# Entry
Amino acid sequence: MSIRKIYDGISNPGETLTRRVIHGGFWSFSLRMANRGLTFMRTIILARLLSPNDFGLFGIAMLALAALEQFSITGFDKALVQKSGNIDDYLDTVWVVQITRGFIIGLVLVLAAPIISRFFGEPRVVMLMRVLGIAIFIGSLKNIGVVFFRKNLEFHKEFVYMFSGTMADFVVALTAAFLLKNAWALIFGFLARNLVQFVVSYFIHSYRPRFRIEWEKAKDLFGFGKWVLGSSILVFLLTQGDDIFVGKLLGVVSLGLYQVAYKISNLPATEITHVISRITFPAYSKLQDNIENLRKAYLDTIQLIAFFSFLIGGLIFILAGDFVVIFIGDKWLPMVSSVMVLVVYASIRSIGAATGPLFQAVGRPQISTNIQIGKLILLVAIIYPLSARWGILGTSWAILIDALVFHPIAEYMVIRITKANPLRIIKLLGLPIIASAITVLSLSGIEKYLLISTNLLFFILKILLGISIYFLITFLFVKIFDYRLLSLIKYRYRKFKGQNIEANSQV
# Structure
């Protein structure tokens, strides 16, 4: 294949939905890998330079910001992606609402900073929160035209837009950390990210918004967005409520340990869910009237998610202790047990990444909202006794138990909507779970009897061995259980190349 053909393949989305989805997947995955590569390096360096206390202070400031963002989310951007037809008449209205929301959030952060600092008993977060307020307002000024990147599956453009902010965060945060050696490094990085993305958004898209609002258009979008708002509030309480609880009950150092443990353990979920939600939502929206194609798209999606998610999750589970010692230091060792529990939760969460976009795409976002209500009720009931007894490890168990109870309910609703065979879903999820478990047990035995040292060389060797074992087991499953993972990958590759092949509905 010539260089010209390769360039055309990655720069031109193509005409067919399948090719556009795969093209979008390539760029969205590339964006996440580039982002997380820099973020991974940034976390390691900052963890060496800063303390859990610094991460805890930044975590408190970000909790306040996240609460205000989630409790004021409009859902208008997702409504624009879901809406069929021309959306140009809606853009200015959404832009004005976006700026107004950013201004209010920034103002509340500035004014409420002393109250929040007293709640957590940390006066040092007051100025951190006020700078965050300025940063969030700057971010709200971004060009609303960037919504077309997701709606039209033009993720190569979104790559440039998002990665520019990541690079700015990386450079500024590390420079500030070397000079200041405190939590301000994290704040300045966040500010730089928002500022650069604001500027780039007007260079990368030609749309120029005007300051005008049409209330009928806003009302129309809110019919969809209200369910996104409800779901987002519940998601915040479920994903950030534990942080609030840890910060208040266990203190700022425990919060820093818990948040870093969550980031490391949720690596597969964070990466995969972000990519999947951005690609599958617009793709599902275009298939919402064709149940057969929607079902096949969903089953293909969870098969690929499960394959990669349980591989990464298994490796994190068995190598968490080595990672902490080698890369970020002994001061972070108290979080290792939490990482091992949370990575199981993260793998379940990664599978759930395909359900939310499907519910939204078929116009039933209330399903996600109702499930989140149930999860919140259970979490509230169990998080205090478990955390009070076992600290951040107990908090981690509360999150895992919540997921184990409610994820099967989400899958049941998917089955009802798509008319999928339950045994087929069990097969697609069960086989990679078994492969991951065998990989973990194999590495445990190898580590116990052969690989005793904890250093970078042995760490890399364990990763390579783990990947080899997982792939070998998967290959056996392909032969024995007709898993057909390879045929799925080949099929998607051929569709990406534009070949006219018939889809095989059996996985």
Observations:
- The mean pLDDT is 78.
- The two ends are 30 Å apart (CA to CA).
- Residues 1-226 form one domain.
- The chain is about 80% helix and 0% strand.
